[in-house]
Amino acid sequence: MSDISKIKVIEEMEEFKILCRKLDELSISILKTLQSIMVERKYLDANLKEGYINMAKARYLMRGQKIGILQVNNSNLIATFKISSYLDVDEGVEYLNYKVDEDSLPEKDVNLKFRTVNAEKQLVDDQTSDSATDEVDSQTEGLRTSKDSMHSNSSDPLKWFGVLVPESLRTCQSRFKQSACTALNITSLHNKLRELQKEYNTLKSQKISLHSLVVPKDHSSEPVCHNLVK
Length: 230
Known about the structure:
By secondary structure, the protein is mainly α. The protein has a domain at 1-64 and 80-105 and 164-215: Helix Hairpins (Orthogonal Bundle), CATH 1.10.287. It contains 4 helices and 2 strands; from the N terminus they run αββααα. Strands 1-2 form a two-stranded antiparallel ribbon. The radius of gyration is 26 Å and the shape is rod-shaped. The two termini are 33 Å apart. GO terms for molecular function: unfolded protein binding. Pfam families: Vma22_CCDC115 (PF21730). This is Vacuolar ATPase assembly protein VMA22. Keywords: Coiled coil. One of its GO terms (biological process) is vacuolar proton-transporting V-type ATPase complex assembly.
């Protein structure tokens, strides 16, 4: 074998090792993204469950005043959230990310948790602090007078059910708003996962093509290095 051939084989081996290393890194990124999606879905389920429970409590407390779709004015609905999308880069891939414009939110909603896709460590901690936050919010809402409510945003859906509504209905609204934000995070994570999978399949095809060059035909079909996801 000539020196040129030896150099070419060495370069191909190095390229093959680099591909294996990139595939391993992508495998870890895919697993982390899947874990984030699972945690976000659990957080979404918890918020939806508590929202429906508080809606049932509000219906019981208001007795004669029903809470339902008949109180909704379909001809004059205005979106509470304004959503924007942008291209984000993370883990070496570019994907479409969604977020809620904070400028479109009233001041009382600034405490909603708008987490980015990189905040996996905060997800579990946020759930434990929700109960304490709800108690503080409940006390704050209880101090509001009917005059303050009259001057609040007229587009607030709570006004469809009267000026003085039960605290459980306010909590229900807050939980559903948080659920909408969490749903956006899940969508962004799915977009990221899709791009990671595309990049993984592309590198895997390159690895298969290169493997046929660096491994002799009479050698075992097993690759030299193994990545986590095959």
